[in-house]
Amino acid sequence: xxxxxxxxxxxxxxxxxxxxxxxxxxxxxxxxxxxxxxxxxxxxxxxxxxxxxxxxxxxxxxxxxxxxxxxxxxxxxxxxxxxxxxxxxxx
Length: 91
What we know:
This protein is of the alpha+beta class. It has helices spanning about 5-20, 25-40, 45-50, and strands at about 65-70, 75-80, 85-90. A hairpin with a 3-residue loop joins strand 1 (about 65-70) and strand 2. Helix 1 runs antiparallel to helix 2. The longest helix has 18 residues, at about 5-20. The relative contact order is 0.15.
């Protein structure tokens, strides 16, 4: 595991903790920083982290707080408060 991967993992945990403490701006900064590190080092974001971040506003999504989760026929639709929707197949 490289230093960049470790830092992305650490930032994912910090973003989750900040969102749990209702500190949305701090969580958003952690998400932005993790995305920048991944881009610079040509790495993929962890699967869980990618699923629970909004691509449009970079907020860390917490279902019931700032995100709505709905089940469709063959996929899950996650809608952020900003209005952006993400669709994922059932796993």
